[in-house]
Design goal:
Strand content: 15-25%
CATH superfamily: CinA-like
Number of domains: 1
CATH class: Alpha Beta
Structural class: alpha/beta
Number of helices: 5
Distance between the termini: 23 Å
Order of helices and strands: EHEHHHEEEH
Largest sheet: 5 strands, mixed
CATH architecture: Alpha-Beta Complex
CATH topology: Maf protein
Length: 143
């Protein structure tokens, strides 16, 4: 597992590494707060940013894919969105996307959250952890 975080600023990595034994599954992460870092480090295509913005499902998936590729992890998870206090890219406070990329699929989970900045960050981390559990659980189901 590896993480690419924007609005959560490392809080998702902190939650993942707070669990004893995390070093067996967590490889590392990138806090890509600035668009330039999303592009240069995570490989988010500039044309994707121009078309969709960084607060989009497409960017969340590209960030998750980028950190997965960068670290060699089986799963990459990313967070991008608006924690506030003001709108960004014409997106309202609370608009968030969690991107997930695994060996066979990539998806984004859209969130519409309400509350102060800290509440939005915490709710994003909780949603991301749930999405990771769902994705990994689905990968382990016989089928």
């Amino acid at each position: 597992m590896s993480t690419a975080e924007s609005l959560t600023g490392g809080a998702l990595a902190a939650a993942l590494t707070a669990v004893p034994g995390a070093s067996a599954t967590y490889l590392g992460g990138v806090v890509a707060y600035a668009t330039d870092v999303k592009v240069a480090v995570l490989g988010v295509p500039e044309d994707l940013v121009e078309r969709h913005g960084v607060i989009s499902a497409a960017c969340a998936i590209a960030m998750a894919r980028g950190v997965r590729d960068l670290t060699g992890a089986t799963y990459g998870v990313a967070t991008t969105g608006v924690a506030g206090p003001t709108a960004q890219e014409s997106k309202p406070v609370g608009r968030v996307y969690v991107g997930l990329c695994g060996p066979v699929s990539a998806l984004a989970v859209p969130l519409e959250l309400v509350g102060e900045r800290a509440v939005i960050v915490e709710a994003t981390v909780t949603a991301a952890l749930g999405a990771i559990a769902d994705l990994v659980g689905e990968a382990r189901l016989p089928g």
